[in-house]
Recover the amino acids of this structure.
């Protein structure tokens, strides 16, 4: 895998002809990028399990929901021709692909090999997709003008360390833009979790929560505080709202494929509870169905931006 990563990065360096990337290649020569990406806590281990082999299922379900914030993320980092942009936790590459279309010089990374494989197939050769897991990125200091992380910080075991690492790879004055799900959760965010709760579903014991010392308050202020504590300046948070329109069974297909904590919870239930949860979901969803028969699911996300200090 490291050989593949090096080959991708070499193509990339050839395209850029950039001294910093030569440094990045030297870094790759000694880094620990592996097909499975190392984990250092129980939360990360559970996350790896959650995403393992699920790239196609993610692309066909939740990726369509998460794509809503792509334009605002790219606007927030003023992605345009020549911007050196790193998309962390790229998933199936929605942000990376849109950034390429804006003329940015893109690198995409994800902890899950099936995501990287799928994203690599969507991106041009000039935009490598690599297996790498926060909080360790295989790039030299100050390699990028912009870092994006669309719904990733809520999936990492050490969010502060992950953010510090994104600051390290940003040049002084470079911009981070990241999203997480907003609180209080909108109706669309609550639909499946509430159906599970009403059916008596029990959270699986192998789904850990963040260690107290790694956690942060899930509010705009809590997110801003986290990003500031990782050394960013000019930190701002705003709420993005949109309505996701989707067929009822397509929406159920995401958790039914075991995606994210809600999916892990659903698939861990006995058949009887799963069936009851689906019935509750259908019942509660009736009020959200539009004239075309599709669900209209309001969602909200916090978008945080921050700048790496000019002094490095
Ligand atoms: C909700 S998906 C978001 C994907 C993508 N950003 C999008 O907009 O569709 C979360 C992604 O984060 C990745 N991920 C989870 N933990 C990670 C880590 N420690 N480092 C890098 N990626 C991680 C998962 O593999 C998954 O692809």
């Amino acid at each position: 895998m490291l050989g593949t990563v090096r080959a991708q990065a070499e193509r990339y360096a050839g395209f850029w002809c950039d001294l910093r990337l030569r440094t990045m290649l030297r870094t790759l020569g000694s880094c620990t990028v592996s097909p499975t990406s190392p984990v250092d806590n129980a939360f990360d281990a559970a996350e790896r399990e959650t995403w393992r082999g699920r790239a196609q299922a993610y692309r066909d379900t939740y990726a369509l929901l998460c794509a809503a914030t792509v334009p605002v993320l790219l606007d927030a980092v003023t992605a345009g021709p020549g911007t050196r942009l790193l998309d962390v936790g790229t998933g199936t590459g929605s942000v990376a692909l849109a950034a390429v279309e804006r003329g940015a010089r893109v690198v995409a990374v994800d902890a899950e090999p099936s995501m990287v494989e799928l994203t690599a197939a969507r991106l041009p050769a000039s935009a490598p997709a690599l297996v790498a897991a926060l909080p360790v990125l295989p790039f030299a200091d100050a390699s990028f003008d912009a870092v994006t992380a669309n719904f990733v910080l809520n999936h990492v075991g050490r969010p502060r360390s992950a953010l510090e690492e994104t600051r390290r790879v940003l040049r002084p004055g470079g911009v981070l833009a990241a999203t997480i799900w907003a609180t209080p959760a909108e109706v669309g965010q609550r639909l499946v979790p509430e159906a599970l709760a009403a059916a008596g579903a029990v959270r699986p014991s192998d789904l850990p929560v963040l260690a107290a010392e790694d956690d942060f308050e899930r509010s705009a202020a809590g997110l801003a505080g986290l990003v500031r504590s990782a050394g960013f300046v000019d930190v701002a948070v705003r709420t993005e709202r949109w309505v996701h329109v989707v067929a009822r069974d397509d929406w159920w297909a995401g958790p039914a494929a075991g995606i994210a904590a809600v999916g892990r919870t659903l698939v861990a239930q006995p058949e009887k509870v799963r069936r009851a949860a689906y019935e509750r979901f259908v019942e509660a969803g009736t009020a959200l169905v539009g004239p075309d028969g599709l669900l209209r699911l309001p969602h909200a996300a916090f978008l945080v931006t921050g700048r790496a200090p000019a002094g490095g």
Summary: Residues 44, 47, 51, 63, 66, 88-91, 94-95, 110-112, 115, 133-134, 150-152, 155-156 surround S-adenosylmethionine (CB under 6 Å). The chain is about 45% helix and 20% strand. Residues 1-36 have pLDDT under 50 and may be disordered.
